[in-house]
Structure formats: structure tokens, C-alpha cells
What we know:
Distance between the termini: 60 Å
Order of helices and strands: EHHEEHEEEEEHEHEHEHEEH
CATH class of the largest domain: Alpha Beta
Largest sheet: 6 strands, parallel
Amino acid sequence: MAPRSNLIILPPDRLDAFTATGVAAELLAFEPDRPVHIVTHEDFVPLFQDAPGLVRFSTHDRANGNMPALRLLSEVMGHNWNRVISLARTRLPFLLWAHHRHHYRFDRGSYALPALFASQSSSTFRPPHIWTPDKIHLALPETLAPDTPLVVLALAESGRAAWDWQHYAELIWRLSDSVAALKRAHIVVLSEPGSALASDLVRNIPAGQISHFDDLSFAKQGALMRRARLLIGTDRLAARMAASVGTPLVLRFDRDNLSAQGRPYGLYVGQDAVEVARYVGAHLPPDAQNLSQNVPHEGVNQPTK
Length: 305
């Protein structure tokens, strides 16, 4: 008889859905033979589509991120689930047949979730997880040496900080001029399609020094961040991704210092490229050896003023 499936109902927020990848990764690791059924917004499917094993999705496209209640019932009722894991504000798990029920109550914006199998693990919390294929190609210039340091500028959500292309261009110059580990760095810009900020920046930096991607898959973004020495920018999801894969230094820009406790990356409020370059020079590890020791956690990348 086929094993009973596990059901995960994801939260309606994109950042919280990314946090939930840690729960899915733990479930797939401890119960690899059980199929996983995920209920989520269609935009969040790329976060999980490279996961190993049999993963199925029930998706919707509602702007508020929640599947209509009647449709959700029709999707999940009538099954005998092994585990029902709810990460959304719904009492549905208590209406379903299941051997185990897990109803998470976590604050929006949390960076990790309690482990499902804490008694069998050395960790009580699960950080987010990014699945990447064994072989993945990044369309970087062929002339780049394998040891060329990469600096990623994550420019999505650009309205969160008052940085225009001139600020970023000055920062690029100051990083290459004053930070020894970034003397030969190649700049990789990640942006949303049609970003005027990204286009203006790329147009004003020598072509051989910069690459721009506005449609890079989630898995390829993860692979890029694993190789990068530094990620800077306004994109909250990119900052979390980089911290989760061990980018040695991650610094996000914002207008306000309102982030939640436990943030796994640095936060900068201001417009001073000189100050940012000094911070990077003081905190960036001098080489890329043994990056596993540089996985960011609270207190590593201290926020700057």
C-alpha cells in the first residue's frame, strides 16, 4: 500500500513561504518515502520545485495569498494524511483525518521555524532551505576566472531605500578601490524585469565588469549566492536567501531600522557609499576558503547606522 502523504499549507506571505522551506526540507529528509502535498500561491511554487522526492502542489492566484476556503476544503478533504502541517491562520487541520497535526503560530517575518523532529536532531529550529540541482549553469562571462570574487547587488524592492544608480556606482568603485578582497570583483545585478535603476546602473559600468539578470530562476539565484562573496541591496528575499546559503557578508539597505529580532544579515540605513565600503572592508572575510564557517547568524553582520 502506498504511504500516506504529508500536507503542508503555506502562509500567504512570500517571505514566510521562504521560511517554510526549512520545514519542507526537514520533512523530506526524515520521511523521504512519503509524498508531500503543498497548498500555496502559484508565485511561491519556484521555492519548492527543485525539492527531491514526490512533491505535488495545489495553487491559487488570490492577491491576499490565501486559497478560498471552499476550494481548500475540496482539495484536501477526503484524504487520510500522515501529517498535516499548517503555517497559515486556519483551523482546517483539526477537520482533517491525520495521524499527526502541526499548527505553527509564528510571527510574520520570522527567520526560522521550530523543528518538526527536534528530538531526533541537534537543532530546535529550521532555517530556510534552497534546493539546487547538482549541475547548474550561470551565464556569467566566460572570461571570468573560477576564483573571481562576485558581488551581488539585489535591487528588487528598490523603493525601500533612497539609493539611485549613482549611489550604487560609487559603491562599486569604492569597494574595488578600498577592499582588498574585492579588487578584481565582478558585479552581478539581480533585479525585477524592467527595472530602470538596474538599466541605468548597468549602462554606466564597463560591460566586462558587470552582469545583469532580471529573470534568473530561484535555484540559479541560490547557486549564484553560494559563489558570491558579498550581497548588498534592498531585496529582502535575496538577503534571506544569501544568509541561508552562507554568503560571507550580507547587507540590506532600508529607510528604517524596523527589522525583527534575529535578523541573519546586516542592515544599513543611510546613503553614504563611503560608510558602506568601510563596513564591508571591516567585516568581509579575507578569503573564500571554508565558507561553511562564515554562515551568517544573528550578531555576525551587525547593523550599521
